[in-house]
Structures are given as structure tokens and as C-alpha cells.
Design brief:
This protein is of the alpha+beta class. Helices cover 34% and strands 25% of the residues. The strands form three sheets. Strands 4-3-5-6-7-8-9-10 form an eight-stranded mixed beta sheet, with helices on both faces. A five-stranded mixed beta sheet has the order 12-11-13-15-14, sandwiched between helices. Strands 1-2 form a two-stranded antiparallel sheet.
Length: 285
């Protein structure tokens, strides 16, 4: 992939709809998140109703209530759109336009009273992500973007959203690198160079989940990688980072948000970090 294959101008070429249509999806999703934020906060550090799903992952009352509300709103506004959600599966999966719904990203954080959790929404049309909203009510922050419209952040109390963009750092030794679980990455066998990348970075931290991708999009970090994702985990952060000027692939270097792995960077460090992660390069700039 060349330098022309990432950045705002490149991202805009992937648009499959008018500015008005894509922006209307974002505006609608932001409005729906006013409702779902209230649901999530009503249960946070209170009555969680935690249970295990058949796959042994956890789910709370808020997870199911938020997704149900979002499915209702999507169906009312766009009855011809499909939905792919964490809690209730796929509906109209062959629709040209589909919504990815992660009602509570960071469920483990939510269960333990950690404020880093959020609702993730992304719209895909004809196989290409078009718009996304991330709402983190306990942090008082939201991030959103659409193809050709840029990436934006809005914090509680701010009068207007601010445009965000990735950093221009081009050396790993100057980079802030983020991960989730180092042990999980090593167990997966997909990123044998994890410790080499972290050792070569200026600073490494494990903030995890959606927040790490927003930090890359805002230019506060240069790279984030993890494994064990579902498409609803990856879709919204993917769109946000690309619209902020960064680059996102799976660990094999493909633009596939259904692979289960992800590497999001400011673009300038992408190839060198990926090569180190997968074990094809011993050193980086």
C-alpha cells in the first residue's frame, strides 16, 4: 500500500452516498445515543444483571437494553437497512446498507465500574464503511465521522465538535503504542513481535477497547493493535481512524474488519509496525 492509500483524500474516495445522506446517519445516531447513554448510565455501578452467554462472555442488562433500543430506532428510520449486533445477531444481513451495533464496548470495564466503555455504531454500504459514532457517556465524550466529512470529537460542555487528525510521528522510538492484553496477543500466535514493538516504542500502554482507537485518531497515540475482535468491535473505530487520516488493517495487512485482528496507526508507521508484529522485520526506524 502506498502513501496515497490512506489519508483524508483517499478515505473520501470510498464514499457511497451523498454528503447529506451520510451526515443524516451520523446525526440520527448521535440522537439515539442520547437515549442509550441514559440507559447505560442508569445501570452503571448499580444493578447490572450480569450473566454469561453460551460463548462464556459476559452480558449485562444495559447491553441488551441498549441494543434493543438501537434496533428499534434503526428499523423505524431505515426499514430497508440490515443490522449486525453483538447481542441479537444479524437481521437482513444481505441488505446493501447495514449497521454494526456494539451496545456496550468494554463490558468488563462496565462491570467493574471503570468509566472506559461506550456504544459503537457504524454504517456499511456495499461492503464499505461509510459513517460511525462512538459515545462514551461516563467519559463525557463522543467521536464521529463519515466518508469525506472528516473525524470529529465532542466533549461534554464543549460548544461545538472539534476536528481531529492523526499525528505525523514517523519513528517508532518517538511513538506512543497501545495494546489490550499482551498475553492474549502472544497466545494468539498472530503477533509474535509484540514485545519487540513495545520495547522499541517511546511509550507503551494498555488502555484497551474503543478508547485506544480514539487516541490514535486524535493524534495522542500512533498505533493500537489487538486480537479477538468481532466486526461490531472494529467497524466504528476503523472508520474513525481512516477519516482522521490514519490507516487500519488486520494483522495480515488486509482491510477486513471481520478478521478478528486489527492494527490502527497514523499511517506513517503502519508497514514497519506490522512487519515487526508478524515477525518479518527485526528492527524499525
Amino acid at each position: 500500500m502506498s502513501s496515497a492509500d490512506f489519508g483524508p483524500a483517499w478515505s473520501a474516495t470510498l464514499r457511497k452516498g451523498s454528503e447529506l445522506e451520510l451526515r443524516s446517519w451520523v446525526d440520527a445516531a448521535l440522537g439515539w445515543c442520547d437515549e442509550t447513554d441514559a440507559i447505560a448510565l442508569a445501570h452503571f455501578r448499580r444493578d447490572l444483571g450480569v450473566r454469561r452467554k453460551p460463548d462464556r462472555t459476559f452480558v449485562t442488562i444495559a447491553d441488551t437494553a441498549v441494543e434493543q433500543r438501537l434496533r428499534e430506532r434503526i428499523a423505524d428510520a431505515h426499514p430497508d437497512h440490515g443490522v449486525i449486533g453483538e447481542e441479537f445477531g444479524t437481521e437482513a444481513g444481505d441488505a446493501e446498507t447495514r449497521w454494526y451495533v456494539d451496545p456496550i464496548d468494554g463490558t468488563h470495564n462496565y462491570m467493574r465500574g471503570v468509566r472506559i466503555f461506550g456504544t459503537l455504531l457504524a454504517v456499511e454500504r456495499a461492503g464499505e464503511l461509510q459513517a460511525a459514532v462512538i459515545s462514551a457517556p461516563a467519559l463525557g465524550e463522543r467521536w464521529f465521522g463519515w466518508r469525506g466529512g472528516g473525524a470529529w470529537a465532542l466533549a461534554t460542555g464543549e460548544g461545538a465538535p472539534r476536528g481531529i487528525s492523526v499525528s505525523t510521528i514517523d519513528a517508532l522510538g518517538d511513538a506512543h503504542v497501545l495494546t489490550t492484553s499482551t498475553a492474549e496477543l502472544e497466545r494468539s500466535g498472530r503477533a509474535p513481535g509484540t514485545r519487540r514493538v513495545l520495547a522499541g516504542a517511546w511509550r507503551e500502554r494498555g488502555f484497551g477497547d474503543f478508547w485506544s482507537y480514539t487516541l490514535v485518531a486524535e493524534g495522542a497515540a500512533e498505533a493500537m493493535f489487538e486480537v479477538g475482535l468481532s466486526p461490531w468491535d472494529a467497524a466504528a473505530p476503523w472508520l474513525l481512524v481512516e477519516e482522521a487520516g490514519g490507516r487500519v488493517t488486520d494483522l495480515d495487512g488486509r482491510r477486513r474488519w471481520d478478521d478478528g485482528s486489527i492494527l490502527a496507526t497514523n499511517g506513517l508507521l503502519h508497514d514497519s509496525v506490522r512487519s515487526m508484529l508478524v515477525g518479518t522485520e527485526e528492527t524499525s526506524r
